[in-house]
């Protein structure tokens, strides 16, 4: 039986919807020893044998520090309206304390000026995991003082750029910083202490609150302050009480531990009870929860794949990093009784299942958590095994289909009442993918790492057309 040839209704976004792409400093900048920059925890971690695939480091990355003008021109050619980038804390404040190094700030001043001249809105993320090594040597995020150091740093950057940058994000994915960095150890600084990871999570929350106040003290009132969360979309394997309890535990550890205090002024009671064998939470001092619950202007959400869990049986209690890298230590404190399952369906090169319904679910969840709050998708994308063809072009139809599906889910969420104001594709460029080194390519733009030549993939051309028209093109439009 032949299918009907009914035309498909175009997926069109509101006129003010922001179309952007995102990167982070250590993944793209390189120039790790230039203009006063000192090592971050990722410099130290990536230079430690066995920590990254192939021993790769971000020493050069994709040399954005020297090629930023070309990269901005590329964004302009594609038709992007916004660019989310992060500030390298040790480039601005090498020891994590004291006055700024103006040469470091000058790089970001030049980048912002270049973006504005190209008609591209800059969005600044203050912390994308590159803690100055000296602060880690003093104890890192498990130590309360690090939150105060972050606030000082936030004020420095806000003073330098707040007159020209309107969109600010305090922290990117504090879950990764706390639990991959201090529990499973697959991210810098590579520690495996679950109690320390819980302290780190609280101090990251405190840093967000203190940093928000610091930014507002030096910036125009029109500026927006937000945080980027990668709350898991947690689905129980079954509706049994044990599986529902397992899902609640992981939801608390991935989402409630952050949005609880940030939005509601309290940690979930179920989280406190589940983690009681590890800590009594006495590091939460009087006034902390009020300090963390600062009014924010938006919530930014990062989404890649859903998480499916069940209660663990005797054969499935081994700690797992659940797609975040190989480790004998779990990133989920006090969750040894939870088993993780690979959802069915097509997978990316990261082994992550492609499921746009999870993005819709995440958006609608935060539409309920914070009614009326503006939302942005600050990261969404996929890694595929991209290779240039004989003619030098790079066709990536799987990524085009991925973006089409997920952007359609965003549009559905808007139709369902969520105030989603923009989308940042992860990532603009192929780059250093943390512990995976240069093995995984998330970029819409292909980078030949030997020559540093940039080649927009089919997905970049497709996404650029969407950005220029506000309507999703046919998935074969870029081929």
From TrEMBL:
Nucleus found in the keyword field: no
GO molecular function, one term: beta-glucosidase activity
Biased composition, class Basic and acidic residues, residue ranges: 315-327
Catalytic activity: Hydrolysis of terminal, non-reducing beta-D-glucosyl residues with release of beta-D-glucose
Keywords, ordered alphabetically: Carbohydrate metabolism, Cellulose degradation, Glycosidase, Hydrolase, Polysaccharide degradation
Keyword flag rRNA-binding: no
Record-annotated membrane-spanning stretches: none
Residues holding substrate: 27, 128, 172, 304, 426, 433-434
EC class (word): hydrolase
GO cellular component, one term: cytosol
BP GO annotations: carbohydrate catabolic process; cellulose catabolic process
Region Disordered: start-end pairs: 315-334
Enzyme Commission number: 3.2.1.21
Entry superkingdom: Bacteria
InterPro entries: GH (IPR017853), GH_1_N_CS (IPR033132), Glyco_hydro_1 (IPR001360), Glyco_hydro_1_AS (IPR018120), Glyco_hydro_1_beta-glucosidase (IPR017736)
Residues at the catalytic site: 173 (proton donor), 379 (nucleophile)
Family according to the record: Belongs to the glycosyl hydrolase 1 family.
NCBIfam families membership: BGL
Annotated protein name in UniProt: Beta-glucosidase
Organism: Streptomyces coelicolor (strain ATCC BAA-471 / A3(2) / M145)
